[in-house]
Batch of 4 targets.
Target 1
Amino acid sequence: MNGLALHERLPAHPPPDHLPSRRHFVPPLPSASWRVALPHSAAAVPVARALVRSALAELEHGADSDTAELLTAELVANAVEHTAGDAPIELVLELLPTACQVEVHDPDPAPPGDLTQPDDGPPDPWQEHGRGLLLIRTLSASCGHRPTESGKAVWFRLPAVPRQWRPRPA
């Protein structure tokens, strides 16, 4: 899915008693978001992974942490490798009641290769590069990119997973 994803949030408080929808009100699950500037260097990758891991560990409903970390590392590494200059890149993590969305903002307005339009055929097994966007397309529930005022944002979304279904830490 390309473009900006819109999220509808439920009201924080139930409607007054005199409204008929009170009996159907379900309080929203907690949501949270983080926006962090990262250096335009390879050092940004482990920092981004740690931020995602820490954020997901704090919530009762989060996404699969291992997958979120892997895909975040791919997005950050691509932003560092494929954009010129030393302007910081930005990691935006939004945890919603039903999903986790990660965006990486960079200053280059060019779309990210074959993120939504895959090349024909499997990747060359002898090449070091070329699998990151395939991983993002394959492992995420949805992914895409959108223009921003200063470049672009590349994103992926993972569904929320109840804590009891998540793999246990080793």
Target 2
Amino acid sequence: MDITTQHSTERPMRLVVVSGSNRHGRFGPVVVDWFLRHTAGRGDFETEVVDLGEVEFPTDLGPGLPDGAGEATARLAAADAFVVVTPEYNHSYPAALKSLIDWHGAEWRAKPVAFVSYGGMSGGLRAVEHLRPVFAELHAVTVRDTVSFHHAHTHFDERGRHRNPEHCDAAAKTLLDQLSWWSRALLEARTVRPYAV
């Protein structure tokens, strides 16, 4: 049975896609839009975006949320699952993404996190490998399979369409199928027994 219709009588999982770059001239929105086209046709997810180009979490962790950040935090708190779309900066992930992660704790807890990365020769995979232990520390569960774009600028046309989509489309389906299973399983587990740190 196809995983996208398996739970047709149950509510869709709330998926938050985090656009992890705020750099001027960033390529991230192209990758995010590509990914959203894959979630749009599925019945197992309702998808929202938290874009770090539009909301800022400072590096100094103050006593309360920064101005304008409450809506983004509410989206994270309500989510059943996350996909982090990240570039690779200097063999790691952006500072803006680390700030978002550090400003939150319970929002990530006992929920699955998957990754879509992009960059140069490594396709952002070094950023992903740095993010996995960060999310483990926050009691999140990272999904094994990723989608990565090596030399990402060369693979998309001027409309944001991938020029040779067969392999990346298949990778996106695998990621989303795994994320669907984990999000449902962890939601059911949290419902039966609240997760204790």
Target 3
Amino acid sequence: MKPVRVPLSLQQAVIRTLRQKLTQASHFLQQRFPEPYITYQQRGTIAGSARLQDWEIRLNPVLLIENQQVFIDEVIPHELAHLLAYHQFGHVAPHGKEWRFIMETIFEIPVNRTHQFPVHSVRSKTFTYYCRCQQHELTLRQHNKVLRRKNCYVCRQCGEKLTLLEST
């Protein structure tokens, strides 16, 4: 997969927001925090992720380019709050009270556990499986596990093993 290049102006906007939120946290908590390492390597439908031990934030370049300022305003504080919660409180629930405290009290941002960005451009190919009561869409990863006999998926409704719908 060819890497997506994020325009320099967007990278600069990411860093500006990151530094502004770090300053807010530093003032509120009365301590300085190192600037996290930012990468643009997050794939799939995930907007961003925080790698706690590495003090790193991974961002989805496609969703960043498609959603720009809204992405920056929502995802940067969200992922930074994960890092700060880990730094201040250790291992805690990913979206627990410590994370919510940082989002609501320090950053003054409403909490959302997941983004609402359109993901049609980053969604991978799906495969149609069926059981006796309905059709199911499995991801490429799930489909490959079935082919390698590593996994067997079962319908939660009827309990029947899922079978690939062969295309004709």
Target 4
Amino acid sequence: MSAEERRESVIRAAITEFARGGYSGTSTEVIAKRVGVSQPYLFRLFPNKQAMFLAAVERCLADTRKVFTDAAEGLEGEEAVRAMAAAYQRLIVDDPDKLQMQMQTYAAVASADASGDHEFRDAARAAWLKMWDETHLALGSDVRETTTFWAFGMLINTLASFGFPAGHRVWSGVYDEARPIA
């Protein structure tokens, strides 16, 4: 494998491991094992654990952005919202590490910010802001529509993280397309 292909393997492994163990609870050793490389080799690809985590955050959010923009392509308004919601539901069902990585990102950023690591916060914030901006464009640059979409999205993340089943009453106010399949 080339160094770039190995780097891609590390990012995919980092998403899985950080999604499951969080930033603080995941060692670079476990990421190296998942990829099948030595820990020192990881540090030839990334300067430190934080850089690996941020690369995983950026990839996870970029993948999610692509799901949204692909789903909304050629659609407007409510049709775009529903298509994006359905696509996101498929994403988190088919690849639950994406949801978990997002949730771990929020926790890691809040923790870093509380401890004064504003560079970490700013890097993760920039990746998330790209996602917000692209969905904003996909939704016709309507601030209220974008805000509502993200409010529902965070609710969906919360309900899915808690494992509420499809028929539970807490899903009743969510777009049908965004509800889990029973």
